[in-house]
Amino acid sequence: MSIFTPTNQIRLTNVAVVRMKRAGKRFEIACYKNKVVGWRSGVEKDLDEVLQTHSVFVNVSKGQVAKKEDLISAFGTDDQTEICKQILTKGEVQVSDKERHTQLEQMFRDIATIVADKCVNPETKRPYTVILIERAMKDIHYSVKPNKSTKQQALEVIKQLKEKMKIERAHMRLRFILPVNEGKKLKEKLKPLIKVIESEDYNQQLEIVCLIDPGCFREIDELIKKETKGKGSLEVLNLKDVEEGDEKFE
Amino acid sequence: MVLNSLDKMIQLQKNTANIRNICVLAHVDHGKTTLADCLISSNGIISSRLAGKLRYMDSREDEQIRGITMKSSAISLHYATGNEEYLINLIDSPGHVDFSSEVSTAVRICDGCIIVVDAVEGICPQTQAVLRQAWLENIRPVLVINKIDRLIVELKFTPQEAYSHLKNILEQINALTGTLFTSKVLEERAERETESQVNLNSEQGEQVYDWSTGLEDTDDSHLYFSPEQGNVVFTSAIDGWGFGIEHFAKIYSQKIGIKKEVLLKTLWGDYYINMKAKKIMKVDQAKGKKPLFVQLILENIWSLYDAVLKRDKEKIDKIVTSLGLKIGAREARHSDPKVQINAICSQWLPISHAVLAMVCQKLPSPLDITAERVEKLMCTGSQTFDSLPPETQALKAGLSLKKKLPRDVSVQDKGTQRSLQQHRHRYPWSPPRMGVHLTQVQREKSQEVPLGFSAPPDDLPPVPHMAYCTLENLYLLMGRELEELEEVPPGNVLGIGGLQDFVLKSATLCSLPSCPPFIPLNFEATPIVRVAVEPKHPSEMPQLVKGMKLLNQADPCVQILIQETGEHVLVTAGEVHLQRCLDDLKERFAKIHISVSEPIIPFRETITKPPKVDMVNEEIGKQQKVAVIHQTKEDQSKVPEGVQVDSDGLITMTTPNKLAMLSVRAMPLPEEVTQILEENSDLIRSMEQLTSSLNEGKDTQMINQKTQEKILEFKGKLEHHLTGRKWRNTVDQIWSFGPRKCGPNILVNKSEDFQNSVWPGPAGKASKEASRYRDLGNSIVSGFQLATLSGPMCEEPLMGVCFVLEKWDLSKFEEQETSDKQNQEQSDLVKGGQGEVKTYSGRDENQEQQDDCPEPFEKRTAQKGDSPLTDCYGPFSGQLIATMKEACRYALQVKPQRLMAAMYTCDIMATGDVLGRVYAVLSKREGRVLQEEMKEGTDMFIIKAVLPVAESFGFADEIRKRTSGLASPQLVFSHWEIIPSDPFWVPTTEEEYLHFGEKADCENQARKYMNAVRKRKGLYVEEKIVEHAEKQRTLSKNK
C-alpha cells in the first residue's frame, strides 16, 4: 500500500450498482449497500432508502447519465423513478457484504435445523439441539454453498457428522402388507434395507412392521411395487421414531 | 495436633445422653463458619490463631474464593465440662438463600440449632427463613448474637446504646418466634374447627361458637429467647470471645456477694445495683442509673477494647493481671491490636466454652426427641399417626419413650429402627463414594449399626420405591476429612458409603420394613432457574449425561430434565446455586467443557375469530383505510396462483397433476374443547390404535369396557361444547386428531360420502369399510398431520384449530386409473430422473411456492402400492399429502393468526413492604396478577400470577434482587395462552396511525416472539439488514 496521495478521482462508497441490459444498452442505477435485497423481498418499502438518486446511468462510476431517447427506446417511458423500480426488481445485483453474510448465516441455521430435525442420538433416541449441531458443523469446518439447496446440504452434513459424533437419521416406521406367496421371497430382498423388524404377522397376508433408514424408502417402495405388481401395500406409520415427552432424571 | 483421638470419639458416641446434634443457622455473612472455626479450634484441630480466618468447614475452592459456604459440612467435637464429657456433632450450613435446601437437610438431622444473628445487621430475611425451618422441624433453637465487637469498633456505641440495641434485636427475634407460634396455633385451631364442623353437621346439634383464638390457653413462654433463661450468648467470633449471663453471674456472686440466682434473673433487664445497700433495684431511667448488664459486663469489655485500641500499655497489663491471664510475649508485642484483643479475650471469655456450655445445657440429646416430632416425621400428608400399621406404631415407643433397648441386639431385631437422612459431601479423591453420604443415623434408637446389614423382607403394606441394600462403609465426619468406623451407636451423625445405587437425594434407612418413609424435607426454595446445558464438543454427550445423573444424586435441590427437543435442562434454586452446580459438573462429575444457554421456549400457533375492534379500540370497518405503501404487494405474496380463496376463508386447491381437488377451511376451536383434547390425548391415542386394528379386521373384543365408556364420555363432552349451527354434526364427522394423531387439533370431513370417523363404530361396518377412498384418505390425513406439526408462522405445532374438509373431488383420478396401464411405462422413465426422496415436511415450502417453482412432488410422505399412478409429478398419494398440507396452511393464513405462549403460574410469598416492587417486576415481564391474599397470622402476602415462560429467564433472580430476598417466587407450568396481539399487525386506520405511527415500531409482543423463533430456526425473518441506508460506514476498505 503506497502513501496516500490526493487524487481527483472520487471513489464511490456506500454504493451498490444494479445493472440491466435492455435493447442492447446497459443501464445502471446507484443504490445504497445492503438495501437492494431488502427491497426485493419487500421488507424495505421506502424507495429513497434504497436509491442514492432517482436518475438512471449508463455508467455509475463515471457518472454518465443515460440519454432520454435510449430510455424511451428501452423502457417505453422516460419516467426515471419508474425505470429505477424496474431495474431494481429485474436487474442483476451486487450482493453486499452484510447481505451475503446474513444469507449464509441463515442457510447455515437452516441446515442445522434440518439436520437436528432429521437426526437422533442413537443411544437415547432423542434429537440433538440445533445449537449443538451448529457447533458440530463448525467443528468439521463445513462451509455453506449458497447455490445448493439447504436440504441437499443437510444430507451431506449428516454424512460428515457421523464420523465425528454419534448421530443417525431418525428411523421411519413402515408397515408392509404383502401377499403370502410372494412375501417370503420379497422379504429376503427387503432384509438388507430394513434396520429393525418390530413385528411379523402371517395371516392371509404377510404383515411386517419395521424401522428403516429414510434414505432407503424409495428403494423399498419401488421394490415392493415391482415385485408384487401393485398387490402389496406400504404404509408409513411414523415419519421419525423418536422418544416423546420430557424425561426427568430420577 | 488433634487432641481427641479417634478412640475417644468412638467411646463418646456410645453415651447417647451426652450427644448433641446441632447445626449453625443464620443469614449469609453473619458468622456461622467463623463461629464453627472457633469451636473447632477448641478441639485443637486448627490453631486458635487461625480460627475465623481459615474457615475450616469451607473445604471447596469456590467457597474459599467467594467467602460463602455452599455445602453443609459436619464435624464431631469433644467438650468436657466438670466431669461430664459431651460429643457434639456440629453441622455448618450455608446462609445464602440459594442453598436453603442444605439448611433443610441439616435441620432434619439435628435436635437443636444455633441461630446466629449479626449484632449490627439484626434480623435479616434468611434469619426469618431459618427460624421458620427450625420451627417446622420442631427443633429447639438457641441464639448467638455475634459481632459485638463491631458495635464497639465500628459503630462506636456507648455501652448503654449497645445494650438498648441488643435488647431491640432480641425483641425482634422474639416477635418473629411469636408470629410463628401464633400462625401455628391458628392453623391448628382451623384444623380443629373443620373437624368439629364435620361432626356437628352430622349431629345437627346446637353449635357453640368459640371465639377465643386458642392463643390464650397455649403457653409459649418457653419458646422465647432471653439471656436469663440461658439460651442467648453474646459473642464476637472473630475476636474469639463470648459469654452468657451465667458466666458473669458466677463471678459477681462471689465478688459482690449477691446470690447467683438473683443475679441470673437481674443481669439482663432494667435493674441496677445499689452498691452501698448491696441491693438490686428496678431501674429508674430518669435517674440515669445504668442497668446491671451495662454496668457489670459491657463496660468492662468496652474498657478493655478501649485500652487495647489506644495502646495503653499500663492499663492493659492491669486488666490482664486483674483477670489472672497470661499473655504470650509475642501477642503482647504484636502491632495489630486485634491480635492482642484476641489473645486476651479468648482466654478471659473463651467463646467455645460459652457456646458449647449453652448447647449442652439447653439443647436436647437424641434421647429427648419429642413424641410430636416423631409422629410428624412418620406421617406423610394428611395421614394421621393412628392410621399407621401397629408394627409401625410400635416403633414410636422405641423412639420416644427413651427406653433403652438392650445393648447386644442382634441384627435381626425388629424393635429398632434406623433411619437415615442423607446429605452429601464432597470427597474429590473418592469418586465412587462421592455421591452418597449420609450424615446421620437418626439417633433415637439405641442400636448399633453393624456392617453388612441388609433388611429382611416383610409383608407390610407396600411402600413405593422401597429397596434393600447393604451398608458398606461407615464414617465419622470430620469436616474435610473422614474417619472410617467399624460401628456407630445410635444417636450419631455419620457418613455411609455404598449407597449410590439405591439412594437419590434422600431416603429413609431402616432395618425394618414397617418403618414408613419420613416426610419429605421442607424446602424453603424450590428450583426455578432453568438453563439448557450442552457439551462444548458434541461427541462428549455421554459424559455430560452421566455427570448430570451424578449431580442429580448429589444435590437435594436440583432438577434435571431431558426435553423432547433433546435439550438437557438444569433447574436450580438460584444463580449462585446454578454457578456451583455448573462448577461441580465441569470439575467433578462430567469433567468436560460445557456451555450454558437459555432454554428453548416452545410456542403454539392458532387462529382466532376476526377481531371486532382494532388496536385503538375502534370498531373495525367504520374508518377509512389509509392506503399503506405496498400493502397490496404483501397480500399477493400470501397466496400463490392456483389456489382459490373464498371470502369466508375456504381454500380450494388441486394437486399438481390436476386430478384431485380439495376444499379446506380452518376454524378456531372453543377453548374448552382444546382443553378436553389436551387432557384426553392418551385416550385418543388408544382410540387410534383401536381403529387401525379394526380396519385390519382384527378381533374387536380386545377393547375393554372401561375404554369404551371413557370414549363415550369423551365424545359426550365434545358434543356438549361443540354446539350451535356451525358445529352441527361435527363430532360425528371427526376424521383425525393432530399432530401425531393425538393432538389438540381436529380434522373434520364434511363431504357427503364420508363414513370413516375416528369413533370406533359397531364391528363389521368398519372392517368392511375398506373403501376405494381409504388409502387416499390416509394421504389426506397425513397431510393434515404434517400441517398441524408445523404452522406457517414459525414452524411450531398448531393448537386448537379445526380443519374442515368441505369437498373432495377425486373423480378425475378414477377415470385416470382405467387408462393407467399405458401411462406406466412412460412414467417410469420420468421417475428415474428425480432426486432424493423427501420424506419430511418441506419446511420452507412457503417460500418455494412464492418463488413460482412449486415442487411439492418432492415431498412424498407415503406411497401406496395399490395404484402405481405416477406421472411427472410423482406418485399421486404424495401429491395429495402435499396439497392437503398446503391447503391447510393457506386456510390458516387467511384467518387471523395468533401465537400461543406457554404460561407459568407463579406463587410469590412476599412481605407487605416489598409488594410494590414485586408488582413492578411482574408487569415488566408481561405477568398478570390473579389474586393476592394475606396469610393468616403473618404479615406475608401470597400473590398468584401468570407469567409467560418466554419471560421467565432471570425472573427469580430479578425479583430477589429487587426485593432484597424478601419475596420468593415459585413457577409451575400451567397452560397455553393466546397472545392477544397480531404478529402481522400494521396500522391501517387513521387512529392507529396517530397512535402508533407509520411504522408501528412500538413493541409487538407476538411479533417479537415469532421473529426470535424464526431466527433461531434459520427461517426467513422480515427484518432490514441495515435500518438507515445513509448511516453505514462509507469508507471503502482500501483507503
Would you give an account of this structure?
The complex is a heterodimer of chains A (250) and B (1039). Chain A has 250 residues and is an alpha+beta fold. Helix content of chain A is 38%, strand content 24%. Chain A is built from eight helices and twelve strands. Chain A has helices spanning 36-41, 68-75, 80-90, 97-118, 130-139, 150-164, 180-190, 217-228, and strands spanning 15-22, 25-32, 57-59, 64-65, 92-93, 119-120, 168-169, 172-179, 194-202, 205-212, 233-238, 247-248. In chain A, a hairpin with a 4-residue loop joins β3 and β4. The longest helix of chain A is centred in the middle third of the chain and has 22 residues, at 97-118. Chain A is elongated. Chain B is an alpha+beta fold. Helix content of chain B is 36%, strand content 18%. In chain B, strands 2-3-1-4-5-6-7 form a seven-stranded mixed sheet, sandwiched between helices. In chain B, strands 20-21-22-25-24-23 form a six-stranded mixed sheet. In chain B, strands 19, 28, 29, 30 and 31 form a five-stranded antiparallel sheet that branches. Residues 202-211, 397-462, 626-637, 762-771 and 820-870 of chain B have low confidence and may be disordered. At the A-B interface, α1, α4, α5, α6 and α8 of A face β15, α18, β16, α20 and α25 of B. β12 of chain A pairs antiparallel with β16 (559-562) of chain B.
